[in-house]
Design brief:
mainly alpha, 7 helices
């Protein structure tokens, strides 16, 4: 499984070496995605509060549970980042922390899923943005595909779970 993961990483990361303009776009996306998702998240909270909606608790709790889950998993399991293990030069500076699961992917997907549970129409577009964010993290050299997939699946499960139990 990890051999296939590494092969897919090398392919996607290799695209940025062949086409530098794609690499520049992936750097732009990965650097701005956290800010974009913070705005989406805060805007969703403001909308829910203004509407007097009772879904504020799962909207706030889902991302918090997601981040806690990342830290717990990374405490018990360390997976070196691709730029560390494979000795490649990532396109962004990043610390040599554990890569599994991707905190960016999990955060993006739990926010997207939470928004989807409240506002379905924009929620689907935000899920697409979360997917692009995940791909950018691979293509800039800081995550393997399985890191992203695992983060995305956990984010979706936590997002749906908090709304299923608390909404």
């Amino acid at each position: 499984m990890f051999a296939i993961d590494e092969r897919i990483f090398r392919f996607l990361f290799g695209i940025t070496g062949q086409f530098q303009w794609i690499g520049r776009w992936m750097v732009f996306i990965t650097e701005w995605s956290s800010k974009v998702f913070a705005v989406i998240y805060l805007s969703s909270i403001v909308c829910v509060v203004r509407q007097g909606n009772t879904l504020l608790i799962p909207l706030v709790l889902g991302p918090a549970l997601g981040l806690g889950t990342v830290y717990i998993i990374r405490f018990f399991y360390y997976r070196p980042r691709p730029f560390t293990r494979l000795k490649v030069q990532s396109l962004i500076d990043h610390e040599e922390s554990s890569s599994l699961p991707s905190k960016h992917a999990l955060s993006a997907f739990v926010i997207a899923t939470s928004v989807l549970c409240i506002y379905p129409v924009p929620g689907y577009g935000i899920l697409l943005l979360a997917s692009i964010t995940g791909i950018s993290r691979i293509m800039v050299g800081v995550h393997y595909p399985l890191d992203i997939i695992f983060g995305a699946v956990l984010g979706i499960i936590i997002g749906i779970g908090t709304f299923s139990f608390l909404a």
